Amino acid sequence: MMKKRKDFVIFFIFVIINLFNCNTTLENEKDIQDEGLKCCENATDQRLIVEFSSSIVEHEYIIHFNNYYKKETRRKYIILALDNNSEIKNFTIVERQNPASDYPSDFDVIHLYEKTPLKGLDLLIKHPLIKSVSPQRIVHRTLKFLNKDDEQEEEIVANNENDGDTNKVNDNEDDIINYISKHLKLDTRTANLKNKQGECCVAEFQNFRRGLSSSTSIDTSQQQQQQLPIENNVNSHSNRRLLRAIPRQITSILKADALWSIGITGKGVKVAVFDTGLSKSHPHFKKIKERTNWTNEKSLSDGISHGTFVTGIIGSSKECLGFAPDADIHIYRVFTSNQVSYTSWFLDAFNYAILKKINVINLSIGGPDFLDRPFVDKVLELSANKVIMVSAIGNDGPLYGTLNNPGDQMDVIGVGGMNFEEKIAKFSSRGMTTWELPEGYGRLKPDIVTYGSQVKGSNLKGGCRSLSGTSVASPVVAGAVTLIISGVLKKMDYINPSSVKQALIEGATRLNDNNMFEQGHGKLNVLKSIKILSEYQPKITLSPTNLDMTDDYMFPYSSQPIYYTMQPIIVNVTILNGISVTGRVAEVQWYPYQNENGNLLNVSIGYSEILWPWSGWMSLHIVVNEYGQYFEGDAQGHVAITIETPSADDPSEKLNSTVNFSIRCRIIPKPPRQKRILWDQYHNLRYPPGYLPRDSLKVKQDPLDWRSDHIHTNFKDMYTHLRSSGYYVEVLGQPFTCFNASHYGTLLLVDPEEEFFDAEIEKLYDDVTNKNLSLIVFADWYNTTVMKHMKFYDQNTRQWWVPDTGGCNVPALNELLNSFGIEFGDKVLEGYFTMGDHHDMYYASGTSIVKFPKANQSVLIERDLVDQGSEILKLPQNGSHQKDLPEIDLKNVRVKHKEVILGMQQTVSTLSSRKGGRIAAYGDSNCLDSTHMEKACFWLLDALLEYSMTSHVSGLLKSMNRMQNIEFTEKTKPQRLLHNNLHLYSKILDSNDRDTKRPLQKCRKFNWEFPYFLNITRSFINEDPIITNNI
């Protein structure tokens, strides 16, 4: 039963629903008496800081049923589940008064007071008609406005030159508009509007008709120049910079006015905005079809302005214009004026959207909690009902692996942000997705990017304001999608989440300087996308469309060639099924090109059993076979995947669609062992599903470790450095028993949270001592007293919960290193220091070495550090203390003590007198992790790799060696925290017994596809899918 409950007992920490506002500039407009217009001349710049906190509602649960039932039926099922037990009497079903109350629903909310903890939850979970039980959650949002004068002043030099590329459309715009108008038989008559002299905002559209413009001109004599947002970076430095003028209308930049000119204005499409509401009398909107309130307040109006802004981007008809002014706008108020929301409010609102047959939903929300099953499942259900979901991808950039849910789901259009310089905004979250780690590899996201920096939208009571963030980019795409769909209403039978996504990504324009995990398929191109959708025929496509290791866009695949004996590279491909909501993979085949060296590749293919809703996945594992061990060059081929779907006209008729995935791999001869590094991914864990705390306890606003610790996510900078230094880095997603140590010079073990199998411990000892494999370890803090101090009281289980591990699982790491005579301690250490004359270092919540062999060739280095753990224990013990860590001058105030932080050891073979591999151990990993890095220590990693690969100790490290002066006294080493919940999601511990390990996981055996050789030379392009009918 504990395993079933793991999805809801821990997730109280992180905000699941999180409005993305990175940088905000408010423009308070002044009324112009004569014209009734607003002017931006005397704008007051402000910066908006958004803070979130969340907690579980005491004794309140969401009961999720397997189907939709009427209120009385649901009530009967709950009573039957609980009334059979005499101890469960005190429960009530919460009455929900909202527009969905009179319709069947698939969930209820109950108050449950139990004499015996968990008894009622167990009974509910066991009921055959109940799908899951989850805690009710409350989210609080706080907005802080800072005047620009309160911040650091900056000198800005604005460059008024307009970059023509910003507004360029690759295909001739007039030709596209003429094609669309003729193809769809639209009225091409236009009514040109001219701006009045001196007007700084744009007037209301008359009949929503506007003249066609091929470019956007900027009157720099009249328009106020605006500063691009300065990214939030603790190490940022302000100085002079050249900035281009920011265009006044986002709709003009993206050519929405060109579609308005032929009568495409959003009419006939229902678009819903899930946000903070909208005033009934707001002057910018003409077609507010319905406003619904899902909160516990009576008001339908927006008291915060975020919902107004988002709605304005989608459908405003005045001043700061929206994309689809004639669309039917449905307002779903899911946040109160006090910025509070509940999970159940969203679930009810989603159900109502399905009932109202909403076409497009904008969600400028998100969070890292992709295991919030009720929310995720409801999004899938929306997609299955042909609702186009557009969601912000997150504001956690520029770090990789920071995508937010639901924007990272296959069925959702995930939107990233760019600025008017045609660069990905620093705040925009980067891919890859991290659901699939550690054994697999992430999918391509975001799907698409668009302008999300300093974009104008509607203000609370009229006039315009400017916001930045992916919460801005999301309604830009949602508005554009609404506009596009309104132009192809005759093809509504073909409109679904996959067909719309296909049109967007095929029409997107690739940015020159950003890779696929930054920009997805490129920037939004409205005209190309509507042209594609206007002539759309249902089809299967792939995302990405191909793999080309010679194309820089394909980073990280382009960053390192492949070679014989290398760990398989993994490509995770999303299958977009525009034909049917469901389907299956009927056949996959591998076609190597004999004339293009394709015979040198082995390919293993996996795929989802069912494609639902409208999408699925295909995974490729690719290696170089023995025939390519001395080859240098490119190898090509393609995978053909056939998808079987039911016919829309006759479900009993099956349609087979075949689409090709082209592959081009760069191959080199096998590198020497001393250049090959193996990165351990298997023993890295992340939130969710467990309470895994951050590595640096100094950080206030990022409490969870959720970026996966992968070389292509938060360790990307380290990976790039290693590649530039000539090393080849491979990823191990299996136990240590699954790699051949003779191929590698060094195993790199950084910040592991997982346990180790006994067989792994034995094999690693043999690999190091007898097979000359070297080991480098970067550890982190682990202290049970500090962990207990970080505990919180969970009202659901009426138990105290603490982190399941520290920044690193030091007890498990000590077991791994015990045979080498190495142990880390339980202190939590922090401090600034130098190594040599030029290397400034910061130790961020690391640990110390308390045991290490002292041999002739050993190196031990110590530094003066502060006991951060003792300081934390002096703080109040409550759930919010992590936000209240005091700012302290670490360099001058606190008492420091000498601690051993680095050890280096040459091992000796157990089978002969020759030397074995080398071990280097350092007590902190934050200097390699880009998440909260203050001082990078890549130079130290270089020095340790030089030692591990060649046995050479750098002069700097040798000069700091204090081995002769260090005496290790008997110190306490960390013990595992009693009653922790690591076993609930560990791959190694028994889920039913935290003290027992599972049987050793078997190494994966790949089934290589039979090669169907093609003796032809192929150009590297994707062909249109082949569709056949099989009855």
UniProtKB/TrEMBL annotation:
**Signal sequence range:** 1-22
> What catalytic activity does the UniProt entry give for this protein?
Processes precursors containing basic and hydrophobic/aliphatic residues at P4 and P2, respectively, with a relatively relaxed acceptance of amino acids at P1 and P3
For this UniProt record, the keywords arranged alphabetically read as follows: Autocatalytic cleavage, Calcium, Cholesterol metabolism, Endoplasmic reticulum, Glycoprotein, Golgi apparatus, Hydrolase, Lipid metabolism, Membrane, Phosphoprotein, Protease, Serine protease, Signal, Steroid metabolism, Sterol metabolism, Transmembrane, Transmembrane helix, Zymogen
Task: Cite the Peptidase S8/S53 domain residue spans from the record.
Answer: 266-522
A GO MF annotation of the entry reads:
serine-type endopeptidase activity
Start and end residues of each Membrane-bound transcription factor site-1 protease-like N-terminal domain = 56-137
Please list the residues that make up the active site. Answer: 275, 306, 471
EC number from the UniProt entry: 3.4.21.112
What the record says about family reads: Belongs to the peptidase S8 family.
Q: What is this protein called?
A: Membrane-bound transcription factor site-1 protease
